[in-house]
Every structure is written in C-alpha cells, then in structure tokens.
Specification:
With about 280 residues, the chain is of the alpha/beta class. The protein has one domain (about 5-275): Vaccinia Virus protein VP39 (Rossmann fold, 3-Layer(aba) Sandwich), CATH 3.40.50. It contains ten helices and ten strands. The chain has an eight-stranded mixed beta sheet, with helices on both faces. The protein has a two-stranded antiparallel sheet with strand order 2-3. Helix 8 links the parallel strand 6 (about 155-160) and strand 7 (about 190-195). Helix 1 packs parallel to helix 5 (about 100-105).
C-alpha cells in the first residue's frame, strides 16, 4: 500500500482513530501521575485539506466534512471537532490535526509526548507543528521507539500507527507491542490497522495472543464486507490494557463512521480479546 497521509488526512479512518485516541487520553489523564505518550509514526502533525493531495483524493470531504456538518454526532467526537474548530477560527476546514497535535492538546503539565517519524521532511514539518508544545520529535524508525521509552512504574501510552507500505508492518506492529509489554506489562497501547481481508486481520490478532496479550479491546469499522483484499475495506484499532470506560466511546465512534461513510454490508464491531 503506497501511503502518504497528506492524501488521506481527515478520512473515515482518521475519524475512528482520533475519536478513540482522544477518548483514551481523557480516561488516562483522569488518573494521578505523569503520563508519557509515544506516537511511533507521527507524520507531519498538521495537514492542509485545501492542498493538492487532499483535494485529489476527496477523502476528507467524505470524512471530517461530514462529521463537522453533523450537529448530532456522538460526544466521543467532541475533542476532535473542537481541535478542528480551533485550527480554523474563520470557519471551514482548511487545516486538520494529526494524532501528535491531538495528543499534545490533551496532555497536562508534567505529561510528555514523544513523536517519532522516519521521513526527515515529515519530521521537520512535525517539529514546526509542535513548536509551541512540550514535545520531543525523534527522526527514525518508530517501531522500537515505544519499547525504548517503556519502563516499569512509568505510565505509558504508545500509539502504533505505521503507514503499511510494507507487508511486514503487521508483524512489526505485533513485535512492537510485545517489546513494550516485555518492559512494562501495565503499559497501554493503541494499534491502528487497515482492514482488507479477514485472514490478515485475524493473523495479526493471533500474533498478539502469541505475544502474551491478555487484555485488549478490538474496534472494527467495516465500511463494506472484507471480501476484496486489494481494497481498504475499513479500519481497526486494538487497545491493549484499555481503561474500563473506553468500550462505549469506541462503539459510538465506529457506529457513526459506518453509518455516515459505509456502504451496504458495512458493520461496526467492538469486542474484548481476553486471553
């Protein structure tokens, strides 16, 4: 899959990911003690929806534009909608926040964001986007970043969201989860994946079980049946060691996205993987 996020910013998958991410951060920041957030594949952090890439794909028009126009959208999207409005004070949706900007906006004094990005040009844009935030930007392969920052006694959330340009990104994502848990069994992790075919997704979940994952929340937004592995038929998130309050919020987000953006045969599924 040839993936540059500037083409896809604000699409249906971003709506699911960013709604769940902000809901997860809201739960984690209610607890005492500093929180470290590691975004392993952070991207540029800020995207122009009026730029050539976004206009060429039209995905934002079918995603964030529909959400912003729906005054009755579930409350789980509230933080995302507020962030979009703040970036566009004159109205419209010219700018869209990536996950590192949303994470930085949710953190408290004493919390920390570590954002990794492999592409130097994207890392430079990310540093600019986070210039006024307490964040560290690391240029390089993000898969090992979360494990290097994990340690017992430190509250950690790792967002693992690779571009899936390589077929081994599924395996490397599962390995990254295992590496974090090997250093800190209590760490929280959120892994984003494209949904193409059921076997590839089930294979990823089996890798997690083999890695010893015993508590996870699986969130699926299937826009259409998973019967064409050449298409992105939806997206999924796997939250490892999730807080108790995440299930309902994740279900609301997935259901709205499937209703607003899906086709016949679409389905939202939120379920527990408990080993």
């Amino acid at each position: 899959m040839n993936y540059r996020h500037a083409f896809h910013a604000g699409n249906f998958a971003d709506l699911v990911k960013h709604a769940v991410l902000t809901a997860l951060l809201a739960e984690l920041t209610r607890a005492a003690g500093p929180l470290t957030v590691v975004d392993t594949h952070a991207g540029a952090g800020l995207y122009r929806l009026d730029g050539a890439e976004a206009l060429a794909s039209g995905e934002a028009e079918a995603g964030i534009a529909r959400l912003m126009a729906d005054a009755a959208a579930p409350a789980v999207f509230g933080a995302l909608k507020a962030a979009v409005r703040k970036l566009n004070p004159k109205g419209g949706i010219a700018l869209y926040p990536g996950s590192p900007l949303l994470a930085a906006g949710a953190l408290r004094r004493g919390d920390k964001l570590v954002a990794g990005e492999m592409r130097p040009e994207e890392a430079a844009r990310l540093r600019k986007a986070l210039a006024d935030r307490p964040a560290e930007v690391v240029t390089g392969d993000g898969f090992g970043l979360a494990a290097r920052r994990a340690k017992p006694g430190q509250r950690l959330l790792a967002l693992i969201d690779p571009p899936f340009e390589r077929p081994d990104d599924y395996a490397r994502s599962a390995e990254a989860v295992a590496a974090v848990l090997a250093r800190d069994r209590a760490a929280s992790l959120l892994v984003w994946l494209p949904l193409k075919d059921l076997e590839t997704f089930d294979g990823f979940l089996r890798r997690l079980e083999d890695a010893g994952v015993t508590r996870a929340l699986v969130i699926e937004a299937r826009l259409r049946p998973l019967d064409n592995p050449m298409k992105m038929n939806g997206c999924a998130l796997v939250a490892v060691n999730p807080p108790a309050g995440l299930d309902a919020a994740a279900s609301e987000a997935a259901q709205w996205v499937v209703r607003a953006c899906g086709e016949s045969g679409g389905e939202a599924r939120v379920w527990r993987l408990d080993g």
